[in-house]
Amino acid sequence: MHKVKSILWLVVFLLVTVGMGVSVWFSIQGDAEADYVVETNVPFAPFEYYKDRQIVGVDVDIVDRVAEKLNKTIQIKNVEFDVIIDNVEAGKIADAGAAGLTITPARAEKVNFTIPYYTSVQYVIYNREMPPPLRDDHIVWEALDGAKLGSQIGSTGYLFVEDEIENGVLVDTGTTIKGIDSHQLAADAINAHIIDYAIADELVAKFIVEKNPDLNALPLYYSGPTREEDYPVEESYAIAVNREKTELLEAFNEVLAGMMTPDADGKTEIDKLVLKHMGLTDE
Amino acid sequence: MSDFFSKVVELFSTQEYIDALLHGFLLTIQISYFAILIGIFLGTIIALVDTAKPSKWLVVPKFICQIYTTIIRGTPMALQLFIMFFVIFAIKGFPSIITAIIAFGLNSAAYSAEVIRGGILSVDPGQTEAGLALGLSRRTIFFKIVAPQAIKNIIPAMGNEIITVIKETAIVSMVGMYDLNMAAKDIGSGQNMASYIVPMFVAALFYLVTIYLITFIVKRVEKSLRKSDLKAEE
């Protein structure tokens, strides 16, 4: 009886192990070696987000077109945002990075950037009950004086704030910036009173406030000599490509140039894709 | 608060979110299962080498095992995972699930080794000496006298290690893998529910139920092994 029982347990164990092995084997099938690997950071809707566990978005559409043009396979991989540039520079596990990356001098020293394909503005997300001093429809840097800010670590918003604290209008004001795992978590951190305001890219901020009625977001401006002359904190997205992969850089540039040519209605393909992935058009 | 519950209802009534959680859960279980198997297998080898009678053949293996457990137990799992992904297995097209299984398996092996070693050492050496005095071979003494008692002491601590591995796999979302934790992040992200709080609670519930089940099984196994003890006391 004892023997029968232990054999039964052994059979159960083997069946479970084989079953698990088969399920792992199936999940590996998608990892087949591709000609190029492009790294991204999900979620950053509408540029990259999960849909039924597949990474989709504007950046993915761009990459797909490049793959089609080169007639090669390109794999998209999700990694932490702040390792993308280093991985692309090393070129060992990634050939390019498409993650709504803003061109900054420090980044441009490590990788080649394609032509910029989208211009974004930084937004300040805040709780409606505790807004920073507003200037009508925007917020200037000076209004953030002494605040506890938060942003996705390594993101442009984070870098911009760091810059202002070190040698900009926020020097010696006691303003702090906290690097948080994702833009979404930064927004959650406002309601948890961990930070006062979150800094995020325009489209991301809009997504967040749309579903959180207690939050609101307004663009961040540099203050000009008069209120009318304030100008927004802009940035341009581009794709980072490894220094040695010139053929990939050229292909990206050609595809992007094509996608940025306005059609008869004055809209570029990139604009249309942004609207599509934001769920604003039916396409 | 009513907002919280309405969001819980929204999550459980959206097919897409449930699918995401179940797929994430599958990956968590896949990684944990194989990592634990590797951990127990390697851990047993390390523990046996470590507790074996000193001899000149075992000087180097013993030293390697000690270095291994020291390094693995002395560094955070998150950093080990990072090194595995970005240094050791920095190979294009290498399946990330395999990297994760190896990373967690190697980590678990060091802890399992300590658990197993503790179990073996908990058996009074006097028993081994008595066995030797009776003229039994070392092999017979280990398998018939030491091992059965050691296993009884190992099971509860091993259950603890299994639980730890399952919960610790949550950090694979750090390297972009779609596990239960990442599913919660996905559901909580801007284009979905745009708040991490409710999905995180639900993911926590998934972990809690799984671990409760495992605790239950381990307790049952423990009880059945202790049957002989109770008889002796009667």
Description of the molecule:
The complex is a heterodimer of chains A (283) and B (234). With 283 residues, chain A is of the alpha/beta class. Chain A has two domains: 32-118 and 237-277, Periplasmic binding protein-like II (D-Maltodextrin-Binding Protein, domain 2, 3-Layer(aba) Sandwich), CATH 3.40.190; 120-234, Periplasmic binding protein-like II (D-Maltodextrin-Binding Protein, domain 2, 3-Layer(aba) Sandwich). Chain A is 37% helix and 25% strand. Chain A has helices at 2-28, 58-70, 84-90, 105-108, 156-167, 183-191, 202-211, 246-259, 269-277; strands spanning 36-40, 49-51, 54-56, 74-78, 96-102, 112-113, 118-127, 139-140, 148-152, 176-180, 197-201, 215-222, 231-232, 234-241. In chain A, the strands form two sheets. In chain A, strands 1, 4, 5, 6, 7, 8, 9, 10, 11, 12, 13 and 14 form a twelve-stranded mixed beta sheet that branches. A two-stranded antiparallel ribbon of chain A has the order 2-3. The radius of gyration of chain A is 23 Å and the shape is globular. In chain A, 44% of the residues are buried. Chain B has 234 residues and is mainly alpha-helical. Chain B has a single domain (2-233), classed as MetI-like fold (Orthogonal Bundle). Helices cover 80% and strands 0% of the residues of chain B. Chain B is built from nine helices and no strands. Chain B has helices at 2-12, 15-51, 59-74, 77-88, 96-121, 125-133, 138-168, 180-188, 197-233. The longest helix of chain B has 37 residues, at 15-51. The termini of chain B are far apart. The mean pLDDT of chain B is 91. The interface between A and B is large, with 44 and 38 residues.
